[in-house]
Amino acid sequence: MKRDEPHLNSKEREEVIDKRLQEIDKDVGYIERLQQHNVELNYKKYGICSLTMIRDDLLMWAHYSDHHRGFCVGIDTEELLNVQISLAKYKKQLVELIKVIYSYTMPSVNFFDSMLSQRDNDIVTLLTTKSEHWSYERECRLTYYDHIDTPIHIGHSAIVEVIMGCKIDDKNKQDMLSLLDKKSSRTAVFQASKHKSDFALEFERIR
After folding, report:
1. pTM recorded for the entire structure
2. What percent of the chain has pLDDT above 90?
3. SS3 content of the chain, % helix, strand, coil (to 5)
4. How far is CA 189 from the centre of its chain?
5. How does DSSP classify residue 160?
6. What are the structural domain ranges in the chain?
7. Residue 187 scores a pLDDT above 70
8. pLDDT at 139 over 70
């Protein structure tokens, strides 16, 4: 009330609060709806890019690379950190790389405390917590505060490797190699293939 109705004095605020609390008390499901509203509202404040710390998981290639027909891009996290520092210093924009927490239970969140906080720590916890069933992904989330659907230009030097999937189309492969030739000479390129005896992948450097 202090924040939303600064012109009211203490007694007037108490009267408005008392009346509203009585209305809430009679409204079954109000708290649940409020929490859901806050979740949806705050989700729209964050841009998220999902990354992983592994490159050879068969399920990841199947789920996120069109059943091995795509490619995997390796990013230098030191270069990424430089981008984060630059955005914070020159544009006052916050980008964080946060490791996902895997849990068997959903995080407990107090949205009333969050509304009074300078930073939405509870919302960040929600955004970076997943079921333990997904722990094999070893995910990190690049989180851009107050920016959704916003590209971050990390520079060509941040791309340190590209892995071609086992089933990548020849044209897509050549297009990627041509693009790398134009943009960067630093990037290592690997071709993935199925291991001959194990349920695993092998990577052969092709340039």
Report:
1. 0.75
2. 61
3. 45, 25, 35
4. 26
5. E
6. 1-43, 46-205
7. yes
8. yes
